[in-house]
Amino acid sequence: MNGATLFWIIAGLALVGLEVVGGEFVLLMLGGGALAAAGTSAAGADTWVSALVFAVVSIGLLLLVRPPMKRHFLSGPKHAMNTDALLGARAEVIERVHEDGGLVRIGGEEWSARPARRSFVFEPGERLVVERIDGAIALVDKDLDTDFDTDTGAGPGVEPGA
């Protein structure tokens, strides 16, 4: 192994290792270019050829591989989380729901609730849908599709927990 090959290997591994700090996949792509250059150097290519391979492979990786990697790994969650996951969820009235409060069951859990429209009142057993969450209170409205399982929130064509 010649000195140029060792240089490219060390540079490539260092760049890949530093990617942990950066997290933008730029150093990872440059590290890939350096490791490709190490391969050409180990095959006996001149230094300028290895440098050219480094440049071409690095640019290719930056343009072709980095964008889809970044979209895949750095995008936000694909599923709603926390209270956002409750928006649109089905609820069943446990205690009368009016503008001063009430109680509903959402996905097997009991939540304090108020009607999304102040003048509405919902009686125990009625099927509702969560319009929004205000702190720890679910703001609910009449659900047009009342054929669902209140423990899972599933209805016709709706996956449990959706």
UniProtKB/TrEMBL annotation:
Tell me where in or outside the cell this protein is found. Membrane
The organism's superkingdom is given as: Bacteria
Q: What UniProt keywords apply to this chain's record, in alphabetical order?
A: Hydrolase, Membrane, Protease, Transmembrane, Transmembrane helix
Gene Ontology CC: one annotated term: plasma membrane
Q: Which GO terms describe its molecular function?
A: peptidase activity
Q: Which GO terms describe its biological process?
A: proteolysis
Membrane topology reported for the UniProt record: Multi-pass membrane protein
Q: Which residues form the NfeD-like C-terminal domain?
A: 84-142
Classify the main location.
membrane
Gene3D superfamilies, A to Z = Nucleic acid-binding proteins
Transmembrane feature ranges: 46-65
Is Transmembrane tagged as a keyword? yes
The record's listing under PANTHER family reads:
INNER MEMBRANE PROTEIN YBBJ (PTHR33507)
- In its UniProt entry, what is this protein called? Membrane protein implicated in regulation of membrane protease activity
Taxonomic source organism: Calidifontibacter indicus
